[in-house]
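=== RUN LOG ===
request id: a7f3
mode: sequence -> structure
chains: 1
length: 123
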Amino acid sequence: MNTLICLFAAAAFAQEPAADLAPATPGDLVAEAPTSTTMWATSNTQLTRTPEEGAAVVGDLNSGDKVQLVLADGDHYRVLKGTLVGWVAAGEMSQVPPVVAVPSLGMAGGISLGGATPLTTGK
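=== RESULT ===
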């Protein structure tokens, strides 16, 4: 009985993969562990499967998007954005976070009365 179970289990694990499943390509896998370097996109750009010119686009980065650097390779970076991994030109990235404009509060002192006259104590 135990021999039969072992043979059945061995046969189940020895099956060929389904024909409709394409093998993973090196561009689909992240062999390198992500570094702790955080970077930001400096403009709207695309992530590609490989760093070569004309490579398939796998996603988009918007200006200011935060990513993790996986690998620096010449003038291209392999980056991780959420669960998406792709290549981007190094010139499109910065280690400095973007500056966010703070809206003006209207008048010196930081309080705007919207045109109303302030109350005074008469002193």
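=== NOTES ===
DSSP finds one helix and seven strands in the chain.
Strands lie at 38-41, 45-48, 57-61, 66-73, 76-81, 84-89, 93-94.
=== END ===
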